[in-house]
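Thread: quick sanity check before group meeting

JM: Hey all, I'm pulling together slides for Thursday and realized we never actually wrote out the predicted structure for the chain we discussed last week. Dropping the sequence here so it's in one place. If anyone has concerns about the input, flag it before I start.
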Amino acid sequence: MYQALYRKWRPKTFDDVVGQQHVTDTLKRQVLLNRLSHAYLFTGTRGTGKTTCAKLLARAVNCENPVGGNPCGKCAACVGIENGSILDVLEIDAASNNSVDNVRALREDAVYTPASVKMRVYIIDEVHMLSNSAFNALLKILEEPPEHLMFILATTELHKVPATILSRCQRYSFKRVSQEDIAARLGVVAKAEGIQLSEEACEMLSRMADGALRDALSLLDQCSGDVVDKERVISAIGVADTQEICRIFEAIKSRNGSAAMDILNELYMNGRDVASVLDRLAELYRDLLMTRLAPKGGSSLLKGGFTAAELSALSQGAEVPNLLAGLDVLEEAISGLRGSSNRRIAAELCLLRLCDYAPAEPVQTYAQPQVVYVSAPAPAAVEKSPELAPAPVADDLPWEAPPAPDDYDAPPAWEPPVYDEPEPVYEAPAPVPEPAPAPVQSGGGVDWKAVLRGVKSGMDDYIFNILADESQIEAAIEDGLIRVMWKNPFAMSMVDESDIKLAIAEVAKKLSGGNWRVSVEEYHEGAKTTQSKLDRLMSRFDIKYDDEGE
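JM (edit): ok, ran it. Output follows.
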């Protein structure tokens, strides 16, 4: 009967375990010095060797002739534990044996001495699946077990294990296996199995395994054949090639939704899984973001398998805010694919939404670095044409008797008083200007560029780049007030924080010697700006900043 590669090539000694030398060296040293613990806890992601090391430790403590801390693999104890004929070493699945009754039965059997080996070993896999009652039933025997008893617990979700269990075990954390180690192991297995594995296919499989060697061997088993190359991996597993993903990104960057949909349809008809397409696209967005934010990080920060030339070409015009927004859209779409009734439509909607977050043309730059607002004088009265001017109101003018007819010579019974001043002319009342705020700084010289230079050393580089980007932030300086006006909600969410405003106020105070307030507002060209929610609330209740700018 055929045996899967990950079972066939399970390590026989601690030296064969890949990528976990920090764990295997310690376990070998404990076996050599006979300083073994009564309880171990192995944690880590899937496929990193937790169960394998547990079985190796169970064989090593019962081996009749250990070699350098490794089980010999030839004695009766090693052979019996390997083929499962020795019942003193039990492997229990906590996912299906998680009740308190199962633990009670385990405790009753554990008190008996082993029949054919030196120590009775219980390997409890996925121990986090035990119920609270089962954990409580396990506590006492786990703390003070008989001399012939050893527990080895394994879990992928350490946060679900109670602290009372953690304090009674020696804990070992298993790391993700690096792509280089996985590729080397795949090469050894492929050569022994007579498989011609190309370098590109080996690199692709090691990258898709995501640090799990068992997954890499399973993928190699799925692509098994006389020759396994890149095309074979793509067709057998249904993943998208890097060139196809780059084509989709180019269509998104140019806001060509039709081209992006055509490429997705081509991949879908060729049997590609839309989830894998979005996963690969998210990896590309992440690598581009790392390239922009951490250019000195090198290839260690990149995980998508894209070449430096591809990333350099695609990063032209790809701004950090657009990449961040695109990653949010992709993560939301990927998480919703599982519950979607039509995965293809969900993927197409995701691509169309990504086109909205891609700039269609280079980001606009402004010639003026800053705009300084001053209190405007009262506007002059608008001169109006006579036919449009409003008629004078009678109550506002002195009374004047109506003219007498021509044929009437008698003087009027009463004459109105004569005024020395000229007769007033009605004008529309000018709007009363709001009183300018009293200046609170004791010196001038505050300039937005000078403020940026002052906050740069003590501020996160990413936040500083947003403040200095004129396409996202416009600064206005008044008497005692610095208005930071955002042009998109993303910039507002990043800079509308109390510590950022306090840092700007402190730098302005150092430059001028006086106190300053900082407000974050929405930018409207040619219209009155809208205050932030915090400033509107402070104005409503007449709350002022203190001397420290808070």
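AS: nice. The two ends are 74 Å apart (CA to CA). The chain has four domains: 5-174, 179-237, 242-356, 448-540.
JM: adding both to the slides.
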